[in-house]
Amino acid sequence: MPTAPQTTDELYEALRENDRRPYGRTRTLTAEELVDAAEQFGEPEPLIHALLELQEAYTYGSEPRKSPVVFARLLNLFDEQPDVFDGRLRHMLFWRFKWVANALRQLPEIPLASLRQWQTEMRDRYEKAGLGLQPYYGQAYQLAAHVGEDTALAYELWAGRTRTELSDCEACEICERALYHLAAGDDERALRIWEPVLSGKESCQEEPARSVSYALLPLLRTGRTDQARALHLAGYRGCRRNPSMAPEVGRHLEFCALTGNEARGLELLAENRNLFAEVDSPLDQLHFLTGAEVLLRRVEQLGHGDLPAAGYAGRTWTVGTLRAEIQSRADDLAARFDTRNGTSTHTDRRRARLERAPLLESLELTLRTRTLEDVAPAAPVAPAAPAKPSVPEELPELIARARELDEQGHPDSRDHWARLRALVAEPGYTHPDDPALGSLTRLRADLLEDEGNLAGERDAYAESAAHFKEAAELYETDGEPGLAALARAGAVLAEAELSAADAPTGHEDNVKAGALGDAYDAIVRLHEGVSGLRPVHEARLLRLRATALALRFQSSRDPEHAEQVLAEVEGLYAFATRHDIPGQISGAVLLRATTHAISGDLPTAVTELDALLARLREQGPAWHLPRVLGLRGKAQLGMGNAEAAHADLSEALRVSAEWPSAGLATARLHNDLAEACLHLGRPDEALRHLTRCAELELRGGSRFDAFCTYSNAARLTLDLGRVEDCIALLDSVLAEPDAAAGELDDRLLAQLRLTRARALHAGEDLKAATAEFVALAAESAGWEDDPGSHAMIAAETAVLLAESGEFERAREAADQALAAHAREPRFEQLSNCLRELARLQAQRQGPEGLPSALGFLEDAGRVADEAREAGYEAHGRSLDTALAYEYGRVHAHAHAHEDAIVALEKAMALLGEPGEDAAKAGEWAECVRLASALEGIYLERPAPALARLDAAIARLTPLGLTEDIEPLTELAAQLRDEN
């Protein structure tokens, strides 16, 4: 708190501001400071308000030890000056007797006698005040359930009584009744009772998150897996990282452990690491730790006890060491409660949770389904790494086989090189003394060349070029000039790929095309400068020459460049055919087909690929089949044949399973299949392929591509209305170490966060969505090279602030959007935003908000004028007609009905008479409906309103627009009935 309040008005404003903060240390510390400030005024009422705020902060900030102390001060004030407590303050005071009872139950150092004494105090106070005792009996039942006594009588004394104004809310009482039957083993009855809360009909600050966490396992046991999945996603979001809901988080961890989602459980545990330090309630700690232990025990049982785990701060934990630490702490907590209560209830309940067997082998909870193997860190190079069965164990045979497969272009060469890389890295490695295998220097060069190829496949071109250059030096040292030339050619091509990085914006393709042309010339010189090449190596150089030209054509799209590619490819094809090099024959045809496809001659490309597929199926190499089928699938998609594309791409994916080393190539197939599925109207299948693609890209080291693919998947998920799936996916992706640390490309990270903010808004979490949008607007303000994106983000931020009722801040955000729009126009987005801001302000504030609302519409008018001058055509509604309609709506909300009708008539004139354009006819009909309602109902002029409606119905009927006619007919009938 910057400065202490100097007046009671300032104190009350500070209390209101603090009330808007989330529960946690910041809110609690501020509340403590405000109590100190209130005491300076020497007045009881400000102090009462400050103490109430402080007790609330302690209660929902999981600090139960402090809540009773604050309440004792409030009770003393009430006893000394009861008249200061008006009806509202008195209600709050008596309500909080329950908070104190709950706080005392959470502290094992408080004797059981003291708990019962407090309940007696509560009963006496309620009776003296003439209040109903149902809340007291509710606390008596909860104490009996906590201790582990026979609860039947206590439950009846509570549940059988009529509710009072001090009873817990409906949602909380529903949860307690359901838990009573759950404890009795009646899952079905518990779920029936829970239905109003689980369906969202009843809620409060803690509900439905609390009920959801308890209902997850009963839902599974009764076969309601889809509902359990949906509630897990929504319920977890409602409690994550919240110290006062640590037990609920623990139950979600347990749910993951019992449904084959151990990897997600570890992810959620890491996200809630703060709870190890921030939960002051021993009872909440016990419930959270037990849930975490269920998860960690399960991971250990599956043989992954050495995985890293997020635990108490100050040291590094594995699953095994954290599980042991949690077990010790939780055992001690359970024993302390049982000692206080004189029962074994908490130890018994804890044991029951820990001994539960998994309820499902596998339940797909999120779109990002991961296994424990997926979350394991990459293993360091180690001599103990076992070789795959297909990889020779004997070193001489392994080296020879790796080179043989590499010359063939066989994907299994990767496993051989990986095994050799591990062996060479071992201390004391001894290279075979065999002239046929060459020196260790030659082998190191081979390994570096393989690393260069791997880096290039994941677009790490700087790394690729460095490996190739180092390999070339070693080849030269070893007297292998031909291989050195090949490695240098690889470096040249990799550096050309990097050229666009420093190019001026908008000139990347031209710069890259020029660099690739230079690369081609350099590779030709390398080729001409070396003699005595083996045919297989010369074919590789020819392939690199053709590849450089093909990549140049991809950047330039110059027809002359296409001709040069085809000429170079003919040379490669002829050479490979003459020397019978199947892999390069296939490569030449692929380059030729790709060139035809990029040139727009898709039928020729498909013809080439048909012939190549026939050859591959007959003569091989079979590992080229996935790529050729994939390319033909893309060509079919380009020709509008989505069914054929889907068939080819699906076959490519099936065949690629035989060559698991080609992970990134398989990822691309999933991406292309997703596109085919979208064309076929199968978005859910597309979503599965997108998420699979992203995971493969992530494993292959192409992290930027992976996050881009996840971004596409998230946007598709949101478009499909799967809001919770979208949020869960993005929460998981944004928790990746490089994303969480801000090491990811800032624009890509912003796109992921923007999609998440939109999903939060769609999920009606306005507070969280607004906070994220405000943060993104502040960050994007610094994007000097992309003011258009800032305009869009600031505009959306303004709308969310307006929805939250913060119109001053909304105006500020709108002004930011307009300033950015002036630099890089976003006509339609800005117009939509400004009209919506006007509507919201007029709707919320009525006549008082009209001047500000009209200010937004004036801005929208200027945007529409600018768009017209720029020749911009809106993709949706005309900016002018939409603006005229909004003037009508805004005046209507402000009760300026005559002005509203004038604006609506202007909108109708701009739209013109309804015709074949159904969208325009629908707009026109809506203008008629609103104008007629204003005139007939609010201005009480039914005759002209009915005349307008009847004329509109007559115009629309011949057009067959029944959906637009129906509201007009209903309004006309209403007006006739009322008059």
How would you concisely characterize the structure shown here?
The protein is an all-alpha fold and 979 residues long. It has 48 helices and 2 strands.
Q: Keyphrases for this structure?
A:
979 residues; mainly alpha; 48 helices; 0% strand; globular
Distance between the termini: 61 Å
Q: How much strand?
A: under 5%
Q: How many beta strands in the DSSP annotation?
A: 2
| Widest beta sheet: strand line-up | 1-2
Gyration radius, to the nearest Å?
A: 35 Å
Task: Find the structural class using helix and strand composition.
Answer: mainly alpha
| Sheet of most strands | 2 strands, antiparallel
In helices, the fraction of residues equals over 70%
Q: Mean pLDDT score, rounded?
A: 93
The geometry reads as globular
Poorly predicted regions: 378-389
The number of distinct helices, counting runs of at least 4 residues, comes to 48
